[in-house]
Fold each of these.
Amino acid sequence: MKYCSSCRKLCSGAEAVCADCNKGYNEINDINEPVLICVVGGVDRSVACGALNDANIPFVEKQYGKIGVSNEIVTGYDAKLLNIAIEVPYSAVPKAYEALASVGVECKVDDDILEQTKADIEEYKLKLKNDDIQMSDKKRTAVRVLSAIAFIVLVALVIWGTDYVMELIKNLFGG
C-alpha cells in the first residue's frame, strides 16, 4: 500500500502523485504509520472523535488544507476548525472505518484500499507469528543469558577503566 507523505492519504492504484496535493507516494513500511482516515469539521468532528475514542483507536487531528482570515470573515466560522484531518495508525484503518461508518462519517478510504489494508495487516501478523516460531524457548533463554553476561562484562570494564584512569591522574599529579 502507498500513501502520500504530505497529506497522508492512502492510494491503492498505480498513480505516481497524489491527486489532492501533487506530491509523490511512498510505500508503507511501518504498520503504525499515521494515515488519513477522514476530513471533518464542526459537529462531524465531534462525532468522529467520539466514535474513535469509544473504539479505543488512537488518532491525531491536524489542519487540512489552507486556512485564511477571509474564510472566517465570509463564513462567520473559525476557519481553523473547519477542515480537520483525522489520522490513525495504518493497522487501525479497518477498525476506524467501521467505527466512523457506524456514526455516518464519510471516510477517505474506499473499498479497495480497505481490503488491501486488511490483507496487509494479516500478512504482518503472520510474519510476526512466524518470527516468534523461529526462535525456540531454549534459543530465547540463551540470548537472554548471553545479553545479561555481556551487560555485566560491560559494567565491569567501565569500572576498571575508571579506576585505571583515576590511578593515572593520581600518579601524574604526585598523589
Note: The helical segments are 42-54, 69-75, 93-102, 111-134, 137-172.
Amino acid sequence: MLEKFLKKSSWTDIVVSLIFILFGTMLITNPSSIMSIIAIILGGICIIMGILKIVDYFSTGKTDNYLIAMAIVAIITGIIIMFCSDIIMSIFRIIIAIWIIYSGIINLQTTIVWKDLQSRLWLLSLVLSVIMIGAGIFILVNSGAILQTIGAIIVAYGIVDIVENVIFIKKIDNYIEK
C-alpha cells in the first residue's frame, strides 16, 4: 500500500517537473511572450480583486473608505501590470544589472587589497570580479537575459528533480525486493 502511494507520488512529481522543464524552456526561447502572458494573468487578478472590493463596498453598505481606495489601487495596479509589463521588466533588469556591476567593482577594490596583502586569492578575486562585471553588462544590454537565466534554472531544477524521483522509485523497488 505504502509502496503504491510512494510510486504514485513520485510519478506525479515527475510530471510536475516535466511541466517545469517545459515552462523553463519557454522562458529561455521566448521570454517576452511568457512575460506578457504572466503580466496579463497578474494584471487580471489585480483587476478582479479590485472589482470584488468595489462590490463588497457597495453590497455590504460599509462606509469604510479604505475599501474603495484599495479597490481603485488594485484596479490601477492591474492595468499598469497588464499594459506596462515591458517597462517594469526593463526597469527591474536595469536595477539588477547596475547592482551586479556595482558589486563587481567593489570586488575589484577587494582584489587590490588582497594583492597588497600578497595573498594568493587576489587572482581568483580578480577573475570573479571581471566575470561579475561582464555578467552585469550582459544583463544590461540583453533584455531577455534575466528571464532566460531563470528559465535555465527552472529547467535544471526539473531535470534534477526527475533524476531524484527516478532514483527514489528504484530504491523503493530495491527495498521491497529485500
Note: The two ends are 16 Å apart (CA to CA).
Amino acid sequence: MTKDLCVLWETDPESTARLEALARAVSGRAFLCTAFHPHITLGCYLQVEEGALADYMLSFAREISPFPLCFEETGLLTPTVAACFPAYEGGLRQHYRAFHRRFDSHADRWTSLANGLYTPHVSLYTGPGEVDAPALRRLSDAFSPFAGTARALALSWVRGEEDYEILLRVPLGGGKDI
C-alpha cells in the first residue's frame, strides 16, 4: 500500500525539551498542543510503498551512529511558520545526501535532493496567519544556541494537515531508543 510518509530525525531528550520550551515561548502558551512533535524532517515521500521505505530506513539507521547537532538560530521558515534551524553540516548534511540516493523520485519538492530546496528545521509554531512581532520577540528572548544529538529515525504517516502517526522509531547505530 502506498502512503504519504515522512522520515524524521529524532533528537535527544534534552534537545527535545529545549525545543518544546521554544514552542511554548513563541506560542505564548504554557501548554503545547498534543500534536507537537519536535523533529527535523529528513524527507517527505509521496505515494511511496510503506514496507520498502521502512526496510530502507531500518537498515540505514543501523549503519550510522548518533551524531551532533548545533541549533544555531530561530526565525521564520515561512511567514506563518516559526522554526529553529540547526547548522546544516556534519552528519545532518552527509546523511541527507546518502539517504536520498534511494526514493528521491518520491520526495516532495521541499525535501528532494534533486530540487535543492531542503532547509533542515524544527517547526515550532504555525499561526493562523503571519507570525506576529510579539511572538518572534518571545522566541528570540527564549533562544540561545545549543548543542544536541540526532538519536533516532522515525517513520511518520501523514494522514492530513496536522494529522500524523509515528509508525516506526529506530535508534541510530542499533542503540537504545530515545
Note: The chain has a mean pLDDT of 89.
Amino acid sequence: MYNLNMRKFSKRLGVMPFLLLGAGLFVIGLLAMNHIVNNWWPFDVSRLDLVRATAEGRADPTLLLEAANVEIILAFLAVLLVAVTGLALPLAYILNRRFLRSHYRPEQSAALSFLAPLRQAVWVGLWVTFCAWLQMNRVLGVAVAGLVAVVLIMFEGLLQVRTRAAYVDG
C-alpha cells in the first residue's frame, strides 16, 4: 500500500523534485565557482611571468600546469561537475519520461525512475568536466570529445540493459 501511494505521489509531483534538486545543485555550483574564481589564485605568485606569456599567446601548457595549484584546479573541476549535473538533471528526467518505458515492477519503479536520470546527469557533468580539463591542457578536440561522449553513452547503455535484466526477470 505504501509503495502504491508513494508511486502516485511521485507521479503527481512530476518534474518538480528534479527541477528543484537541479536548480539547487546549479546554484550551489555557481556560487562556489564564483568564490573560487574571484578569491583564489590558481598559480604560484612567483610565476607571474606566465600570466604575461598567456596574455601574449606564447605560454607553454606544460609550464602553466607545473605552476598551477592542483588543489584549486581540482576544486574548480569538482564545482563545475556539480553545476553541470544540476543543469542537466531536469533535462535527463524529461528525456527519460519521454523515451523510456517503465519495464520494472511497480514497487521498484519509483526508486529506479529517480536514479537513472540522476546517473545520466552525472555522466553529462563528468563529460563536461573532462572536456574542461582537456581544454586546460590545450589538447581538447572534437574527435576526443566525441569519443569520450560515445564511451560514456555506451557505458550508460550497458548499465540500463543490466538494470532492466535484473528487475524484469528477477
Note: The chain has one domain: 2-168.
